[in-house]
Amino acid sequence: QNHVISIPDPNVTLAQKCKPFPVEFVVRGYMTGSSSTSIWTQYHGGVRNYCGVSLPEGMSKNQKISSRPILTPTTKEEAHDRPISPQEIVDEGWMTKEHWEYASEHALRLFTRGQELSRRNGLILVDTKYEMGLSKMVKFCSSMKFIPLIHPDTGSNRAMRNGWKREREPENVDKEFLRLWFRENCDPYKDETLPKAPEELVIELAARYIHLYEIITGQTFQCPEPGKGIMEQYAIPLIYLSIDRIKRLGLRIRSYQLHQVHGSRWFRIEEDRISQDPTPQIL
How many Å separate Cα 29 from the centre of its chain? Predict the structure, then answer.
């Protein structure tokens, strides 16, 4: 399960509050990537044991790694993500052994399913990352959830299946081209101020995501109405919708707050589980 309760609008997700694990579950099917933690960068630099996975000699870029995908987790740290093995995750206290085994099994199963769906649409799901956390919807009982989204364009690399060749760079339909531009024009991990990406690259990125949406869903992308911000269209209706939904889940709303971060507004609801009162009061 994931943490989504409902999606009242494509720009709005009502979700359960979870405590995330400080680990990203990166699943890979191919020897590729350009970031410092990508499997190809590490392999090209001489690494043969990556996140606890032994890699054979003689592999080339864009080669399929094995008959089954592999899981290469990274830590989520303030300075920089760090590749880490399953044993290190447990030994260093990032997760318990039970939580790791459950999460890793489901990450691999979900990636396999994503690959199957991608093949049906002429795509290759090259790699992706999952985040998971614990949701305590019932007092003293936690359940593990996928957060935030599953196989999103921003966290997955995809390529056209008929354009995947080991001898040359594949026809990607993801953000990799923009990542390469930043790598050529700055050091994204060390520079305090990053250059502004050219407008044509931003437009190209939007076009690729729209193209992916239409390929995967089989639907025509509907552009939002120009000139109207999300607050004008959805803020108050969303608040009442959320209150109604949370009441039906048996939760009490202590308070809600509107926030503005980087030009976007959102609200947070503090909630408690109601054990006896079937008609909780909205404070």
Answer: 17
What's the pLDDT score for residue 2? Answer: 80
Q: How far apart are CA 238 and CA 6, in angstroms?
A: 11
Give the predicted TM-score (pTM) of the model.
Answer: 0.70
Instruction: Using only the alpha carbons of the chain, give its radius of gyration.
Output: 21
Number of Cβ within a 10 Å radius of residue 238: 19
Q: How far is CA 226 from CA 13, 223, 229, 262, 273, in A?
A: 21, 8, 8, 20, 40
Q: For residue 45, what pLDDT is reported?
A: 94
Calpha distance 34→28 (Å, rounded): 14
| Residue where the block lists tokens 């990274």 | 74
| In the block, residue with structure tokens 């931003």 | 202
Positive or negative: CA dihedral 160, 165, 166, 171: negative
Give the pLDDT score at 226. 66
Q: Does residue 150 register a pLDDT over 90?
A: no
Q: Does the pLDDT value for residue 273 go beyond 60?
A: no
Give the separation between CA 202 and CA 224, rounded to whole angstroms. Answer: 17
